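> @MW can you paste both from yesterday?
MW: sure, first one:
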Amino acid sequence: MASSRPPSVASSRGPQSWQRGHSTSQPPVPFRLLARFLRSTRGVSARVTGQHRSRIPLDQVLKHGIRVVDPNGEELAKYHPRDYLDHVEEHVEPWSYLKFPFLKQKGWQGFTDDVDSGLYRATPLARLNVADGMATPLAQSEYERFFETLTGDKSGKTPVHQTLATHWARVVEMVYAAERTLQLATDDEITSDEIRVLPTETPTEGVGGVEAPRGTLTHHYVTDERGILQQVNLIVGTTNNHGPISMSIKKAAQGIIKSGVEVTEGVLNKIEMAFRAYDPCFGCATHSLPGEMPLVVRVRAPDGTVLAEGGR
């Protein structure tokens, strides 16, 4: 699949949360996915500075926040999750239930993948591109092999933008997850009796950021005096990647469907490869669970006439 390189965004090194008027006192947590959440097809990426540390004190989490880097790995911005509305905006198209997040610094430039694109990626590949390394030895070795094979430089300073390389990036993260799971299995905090924290006051407004396998999650909640939710905004991994997913599908379709090509099951499978690399969850992004995965491909002439149609 052709490479595309929008911006990427990711949060510093662990789940982060904030409540208006006071910070939550969370214990140090593993950070790993948040550090690269916004890497778009050809634009910017976001990550936290430094390596994927196994643990990092809360004050350091708040210090690093979310980092945004461009396709060349240069930092564009760094901000705390509570300030996400100052850096990320959501564009709406009439033909989709999903929104299209973009970086305010770049602005909405449409579905473009050049260096000025406001779109970004939040994928395992984006995370590797924004990270300085892995926190465990075997994962670090695979990290270096990944970049040396694809860029000739094992340091990771040269980003990788090929969409299908996302699958290899997942393998690197799985190695880290296995090593980190072994460490956590003997962690005193994990095995302690302190497994529940009761709230001591009525919440008012809070913003949290955490890195999930398919990308960064940003949750924003506003409550009334009873603690009942009044406003909610969620930007999940698939929403972050919606713009790049759409562009990858278009590139795949245009590269495969030529004059005289019949839209067969095999053609649909190849086009599907483009968005499966992002591991999309449209139920999460649209809050709808239809229980099926319809796919329709329409081939149109320049004037919009439908020349062929296939689907399942």
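MW: second:
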Amino acid sequence: MKFLEEQDIACLKAGYSFDGEKEAFVCPVCGESFDAEEIFCVEGRYLTARRAAARHCENRHGGPLAALLESGIPYGDFFRHAPAMNPNRAFITGKVCGVRVEEIQDPLMRDIRYLDKLVDELAKGKPMEQILRK
């Protein structure tokens, strides 16, 4: 799924991207587009193009995360091609799998462990701002 690999994190999270040239919202998985000036009937409800694109991604592909997991994109490639890692990730501290994240030398492995730690802390109920020390 080449199209999926080219998407940034924000598009994957939202379940759509916006194509300014076509004036359309686009599924980040398959590239199906939804004209921004149209209203779409989805499951008996009328939706804007933005919401229709997000709903399409969820219904057709199980959501952007499920599609990413099924795509076969190696975990390391996902991190290497991420367009904008949060600069505050360096403020995440603590241990993951018995190793302190701030002491990991390999930048790719450190970024992977930052995400692990972030997910662990969010699961414990900590707010994102506290984890990233904003």
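> thanks! The mean pLDDT is 82.
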